[in-house]
Write a structure and sequence with these properties.
The structure is a single chain. By secondary structure, the chain is mostly helical. It contains eight helices and no strands. The protein has two domains: about 70 residues, no CATH class; about 100 residues, no CATH class. About 75% of the residues lie in helices and about 0% in strands. Helix 6 crosses helix 7, helix 6 crosses helix 8 and helix 7 crosses helix 8. It is globular, with a radius of gyration of 18 Å.
Length: about 180
């Protein structure tokens, strides 16, 4: 919760990826909030009040996941909405006359995004930012499992990471009112 609050404030893409990890963590604990409390929350070096707040946060997320029917896969609706909002912002930057550097960076990744979208094989069209975020989340999982990543894959994912970093930085500036589009 403390980490998620900071990530949400500073980097929207990192926040989404972090929250996807938290969803998977809750699934790995099979929504057993008491086990999450004893094995995870109890390990936090925080005050009792903060620990209670963290426990409530995990419990609320678990309950929301069950209520929204994302027990085995998928994401909480508000996270899906954030991905959509980020994708809409992405296209606003592409259409803007003030963000040529971002546009150039996007043009270097657009083919890889399209190719990965096809490989994902979804019946629905997956947004550019969802493709990038899903790819990076897959990379995180591969690293956790200590799976080998080819240099070509690493290069593509690094370009996605750079694009999302630029987008997140601009998004933060937009949210704080320091820039307009």
């Amino acid at each position: 919760m403390i980490i998620s609050r900071e990530k949400r404030k500073n980097n929207i893409a990192e926040y989404i990826l972090y929250m996807w990890q938290i969803e998977d963590l809750i699934r790995a604990y099979n929504f057993d909030i008491e086990r999450i409390n004893s094995e995870l929350v109890s390990q936090y070096d925080v005050s009792d009040n903060e620990r209670t707040e963290i426990f409530s946060w995990y419990a609320g997320l678990a309950e929301s996941m069950l209520t929204e029917g994302v027990r085995s896969h998928g994401h909480l609706q508000y996270l899906d909405s954030l991905v959509e909002e980020l994708n809409d912002f992405h296209f606003r930057l592409i259409d803007s006359s003030h963000h040529s550097e971002y546009q150039k960076k996007y043009m270097t990744t657009v083919r890889d995004i399209s190719e990965l979208r096809l490989k994902m094989g979804s019946k629905e069209r997956i947004s550019d930012m969802e493709v990038c975020l899903t790819a990076l989340y897959g990379l995180i999982l591969m690293r956790i499992k200590k799976r080998k990543v080819s240099k070509d894959t690493e290069k593509v994912f690094n370009s996605f990471s750079e694009l999302l970093a630029d987008l997140s930085k601009t998004f933060k500036s937009y949210e704080t009112g320091t820039i307009e589009i």
